[in-house]
Design goal:
The protein is an alpha+beta fold. The chain has a single domain, classed as 3-Layer(aba) Sandwich (Trna Endonuclease, Chain: A, domain 1), CATH 3.40.1350. The chain is about 25% helix and about 30% strand. The protein contains 3 helices and 10 strands. The strands form 3 sheets. The protein has a 5-stranded mixed β-sheet, with helices on one face. Strands 4-5-10 form a 3-stranded antiparallel β-sheet. A hairpin with a 4-residue loop joins strand 7 and strand 8. This is DUF4365 domain-containing protein. InterPro entries: DUF4365. It comes from Streptomyces formicae. It holds the Pfam family DUF4365.
């Protein structure tokens, strides 16, 4: 597999593994129009059967720019527009930091499967659309403190459930 496709596939699979560990369903939208993964869960209250969407960007160690407290990532304007603002299905940008070489992606042992490295998230819900004159991309900062974990995914769903209008 070509390296960039391999890296992207690994990044999405990395996030899917976190979602699976959190007990969520994962769907891959087809065709891909700005969301790589849709996560859902079987809630005991069917009215709270919500979903969230994730746009996954994978970058190799040393391939991205760090700035202060986070990672800079450039998004094409159209992709930025698909992620920003309040959505019926909340959207998050996820940046997966992957090892430089595919043979470093995982380690398998008798009692463990270890995935390398980590994923970070950013909500663009409250980001304003920048002045676009001549711009083809927008640079955002994904905070290092926003480590994507199973607990964070549960928080995303809890928040999405709180925003479901009462019937």
């Amino acid at each position: 597999m070509e390296l960039n496709n391999h890296q992207g596939w690994y990044g999405e699979t990395f996030v899917s593994a976190i979602a699976a560990a959190a007990g969520f369903q994962v769907a891959v939208p087809y065709p891909d129009i700005g969301k790589d993964l849709i996560l859902g869960r079987d809630h005991e209250d069917p009215e709270l059967d919500v979903q969230i969407a994730l746009q996954v960007k994978s970058r190799r160690v040393g391939e991205f720019t760090t700035c202060g407290t986070g990672f800079s990532i450039a998004l094409p304007i159209d992709q930025f527009k698909r992620l920003r603002g309040r959505r019926q299905v909340p959207c998050y940008l996820v940046m997966v930091v992957v090892p430089e070489h595919p043979h470093e992606y995982i380690k398998v042992a008798q009692q463990a499967l270890t995935l390398h490295h980590s994923a970070y998230w950013l909500s663009l819900e409250n980001h304003l659309l920048p002045v676009q004159q001549g711009q083809k991309s927008v640079t955002v900062t994904v905070p290092r403190d926003n480590l994507l974990t199973t607990e964070v995914l549960h928080e995303f769903f809890d928040r999405a459930c709180e925003e479901v209008p009462a019937s």
